[in-house]
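Hello again, I could really use a second opinion on something today. I've dropped the whole record in just underneath, so have a look.
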Amino acid sequence: MEKKRKFPAVRFAVGGGTLLLGAAGWLAARYADGFADFYGFSVYPAVVNVFARISGLFPFSLAELMIVCGVLLALFAVGYFIVNMVRRRGGRLRLLVSSAASVVFVGGILLFCFVYGMGINYSRRPFSEIAGLTTGRYSKEQVLDTLRYAIDNLTAAGEKVTLDADGHVTVPGDLSDRAGAAMRRLGERYDSLNSFYPRVKPVLMSELMCHAHITGIFTFYSMEANYNTMDVPEELGHTVCHELSHMTGFMREDEANFVSYLACRGSGDDYLTYSGWYDITVYLLNAYYPEATAQEYSEVYMTIPEYARKQLSMQNEFWDKYRHDFGKAAEAMNDVYLKINDQQEGTKSYGRVVDLVIADHLSENGGK
């Protein structure tokens, strides 16, 4: 009996301690100069190297299994609590205290893992600074010039890939190995990307990811990069490299997209090269659309190869099936999450990759 009385105290102590450590790390990252950079570029790579290797021992998505088990355990715990609160005539206070201790314990562990697994990295030096890129306001002509540049490269890359019977690009079977090789190759150019890259794992419940409008996810508590197997083939390569970019600590979506674009572009792999140019062309088209007249947009759109236009159409048709209230709610939650982590533009930060691509294009062409 004595041990049972002490057990809630232990849970309160451990949970409270991890909550304090998590909060301290989050505050230090936000307000202590140099802390986020020190942790993100010196300590975090070691965390990835250890825990990503452990999770990599499992051939399946450990994160997916943990989520399923976590949901089932939470449902059981809630059911257990309700049943016992109804049935018990005495000892309800002890049950309340014990349940509160469990909530604090689990909450503390989750917060600690989040902060030191990815949260601090939101405040460290951005990749754009490491790459020496300064973004600004761009004219309609600069957007158009970069779009034409992307379409030219998309067309050239399209000549080297094969299409299936439906018109989609054929995805190589060793996609994870190819993406890892592309990221390591980019790591030779940027030390901050010289990291350990585990295999990217497919998610069995990809249908649920589609409903939530998620193509890939980096899970901090298992140090895994996961991808939606139902994503259109043209985007899949870019998505996989995007999640590997998160593994290196570049958590901002716009920068992960840009890193993925650089990795695909310089991979030397026909499929990844096409996927990178395809995805960035979509972003540039979306950026140019509100700036152009219908005729101007149509003129540049028709310069895209016919098979690629068909792929864009199939992509829209695919995601149109998942445009419902649940998807909107999931997107709204993601928007709030991004803003909490200092991405003030929320989900719009996904589109800021355009600024980085334009800045990179201008730097390669003497700022013209």
Observations:
- Confidence is low (pLDDT under 50) at residues 336-341, 346-350.
- The chain is about 65% helix and 5% strand.
